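Retro notes (design track)

What went well: tokenization of the new backbones is finally stable.
What didn't: we kept losing track of which sequence belonged to which structure.
Fix going forward: every design gets posted as structure first, then sequence, in one message. First example under the new rule, 135 residues:
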């Protein structure tokens, strides 16, 4: 399952994501992972969740991002939730590429993906909402 937290810059997407990460870390029977660009969430995310800085691994573009996420799941089958902040900054602002990325991710079972997407909902193609639901 894929969920998107959509809104313009400054609309509270990251705060909502952090609240969801911390809630999942408390209730999940498995592992919770949060991917960010940079290290701004270090003191906001619970120590019970795994926080990963995409920049520390040189992740750039949706192909590399998909490889990282699928590798996380392949390496630890107990991962129940993977959160991603700054999705368009890690991948690109090309919404067709975002759609393809989400399509590939939808084939990974037994994990819930939640991403922030910094744009107006009306900018996104309808195909994205066939793959992912809005949070």
């Amino acid at each position: 399952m894929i969920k998107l937290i959509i809104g313009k810059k400054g609309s509270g997407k990251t705060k909502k994501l952090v609240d969801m990460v911390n809630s999942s870390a408390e209730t999940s029977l498995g592992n919770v992972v949060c991917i960010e660009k940079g290290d701004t969430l270090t003191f906001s995310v619970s120590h019970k969740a795994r926080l990963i800085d995409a920049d520390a691994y040189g992740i750039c573009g949706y192909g590399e991002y998909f490889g990282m996420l699928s590798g996380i799941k392949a390496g630890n089958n107990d991962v129940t939730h993977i959160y991603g902040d700054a999705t368009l900054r890690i991948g690109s602002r090309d919404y067709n590429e975002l759609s393809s990325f989400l399509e590939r991710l939808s084939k990974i079972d037994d994990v819930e993906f939640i991403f922030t997407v910094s744009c107006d909902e009306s900018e996104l193609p309808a195909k994205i909402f066939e793959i992912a639901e809005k949070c």
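Added context from the reviewer: The chain is about 35% helix and 25% strand.
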